Every structure is written in structure tokens, then in C-alpha cells.
Amino acid sequence: MTRTALITGASRGIGRAIAEELSRDHRILVGATTLDNARAAADSLPDAEPFVADLAEPDALAAAVDKAGLSTLDVLVHSAGMLKNPRVEDARWSDWEDSFRLNVFAPAELTRLLLPALRAARGNVIAINSGSGLHSGATNSIYSGTKYALRAFADALRAEELGNIRVTSVYPGRVDTDMQRQLRASEGVADYDGQRWVRPANVAKAVRTAIEVSPETAIDDVSVRPSGLNG
Q1: Alpha-carbon separation of residue 174 from 14, 88, 96, 197, 210 (angstroms)
Q2: CA angle in degrees (0–180, nearest 5) for 158-159-165
Q3: Tens digit of each residue's pLDDT (9 = 90 or more) over 72-114
Q4: pLDDT band for position 174 (cuts 50, 70, 90)
Q5: How far does Cα 99 stand from its chain's mean position?
Q6: Residue 181: is its pLDDT beyond 90?
Q7: For the chain, what percent of residues have pLDDT higher than 90?
Q8: Domains in the chain and their CATH numbers?
Q9: 144 near 129, Cβ under 8 Å?
């Protein structure tokens, strides 16, 4: 029986790489905000279809889950996210709210809605976190705040659902993605060199490892860091 994976943020970056990796043996629900982006990614995969929702809107999220009609779900990957990194003195209420809605509230609500399907499959929840979920610093109060919260959510979910589903937090360091380009630009770096950073495909391989270990085993946390060998 074909396994099913729902991946948010699957139209580009890490989410797209995870969709490509898992598509070798999973039916993929391609999570994206627009139908065009979801279809573009789904059309490149052997067995995939769009999962379109504004993740920051709970009614839209519930409607998308209802439309998908999943009685079982083998893998749920939370990869969608946003980066806002002003200094504390410059951060506005809306910056905090927008970031927490997408980076924390959306994964929590989507998981809640899909728990029956995940339990039925004894499935896996994968939270794509960040090194910023382990430490913070200047201009990182908002993004790190959301990632610390996502870490707490995953830890609580794992404890509550022990024996029903497995929950893994993946902590990538710097990855060669559009978000990394945005971050480097905000740091004042003019020349971007993606060869120094982790390839999205290698984060995807870590996700595969977490879901393929035998049922008596759980991988709770995975850190995927640049090696420095290409620096």
C-alpha cells in the first residue's frame, strides 16, 4: 500500500527537496499557498497532488484538511515558515504575530486536525526547525522565538503521543535556500556563496532516516550542519 506524506512549504527550498526525496515511495500532498505553485511542484513528481491553504488562517486550514479527506497519514512534515529578523527596538506587534501564526500556530493546528489520521497510520510528524531553535542572538528574537516554541510543541506532542506516532525535530544550520539568501543580505553580505551551506537534499535525507527506522526506534532530534569543507 502506498504511503502518503503531506509536506507544507513543498513548492521550494527544503520542503521541495523533502517532497522529491519522499516521492520515490510516497504519494505526496504538496503544501503551498497558491494552486499554481502547488501544481508546478506536484507535476514534477510521480504521484502527487496539491494541498493548498493559507496556513496562517485556521478556517482555510480546516477546509483544506477536510477537502483532502485523509483517513490515514504516514508522514506530516512542517516545512513552511517565514523569517523576520529586526532588532527588538524595531520589531512591531505585526512582525511577532505574523511569524508566530505561520511558524508555530499553523503547525500546531494542522497537527491537531490530522492526529486521527496520523494515529491510524502510526505515522511520523517532522518539524523542520532551525539552529535558531537551539540558540538566539542579535536580530533573532522573533525567528528564534518561533523556533524555540516549535521545539517545545514537538517535545510536548512526542510525550503525549508516545506509542501512537513518532515526532522528530530537524535542526538545519545554514542551508542553500532563498531564505538563506534573504538572511545573508540582511547581514550585509553582498556575494552569496551557496556552496558553503548544506544542500536541501541532505536535509531531506535526514528526514528519510527519521521515518525509516524500524518501529521500536524513534529519532527525536537531528542536527544537520555545514561541515566547513567547502568553505
Answers
A1: 11, 23, 22, 6, 20
A2: 45
A3: 999 999 999 999 999 999 999 999 999 999 999 999 999 999 9
A4: confident
A5: 14
A6: no
A7: 85
A8: 3-217 (3.40.50.720)
A9: no
- Where helices occur in 57-140 by DSSP H, the ranges are 58-68, 93-100, 106-121
Separation CA 142–CA 134 (nearest Å): 14
CB atoms inside a 10 Å sphere around CB 132: 22
Instruction: Give the separation between CA 38 and CA 141, rounded to whole angstroms.
Output: 31
**Does the pLDDT of residue 231 top 60, yes or no?**
no
At residue 80, the pLDDT reads 97
Cβ(177)–Cβ(132) below 8 Å = no
In this prediction the pTM is: 0.94
The DSSP output letter for 7 is E
For cell 493548498, the residue is 52
Residue 30, strand partner residues: 7, 50
Q: What is the pLDDT of residues 119-163, one digit of tens each?
A: 999 999 999 999 999 999 999 999 999 999 999 999 999 999 999
Spatial distance between the Cα atoms of 41 and 215, rounded to a whole number of angstroms:
30
- Cβ neighbours for 130, distance < 8 A, ≥ 6 positions apart: 143, 147, 171, 172
Closest CA to 100 of 81, 123, 121: 81
- Grid coordinates in use for 147? 523556533
For the record, the C-alpha cell of 49 comes out as 497532488
- Name the residue among 218, 143, 138, 151 with its Cα closest to residue 180: 143
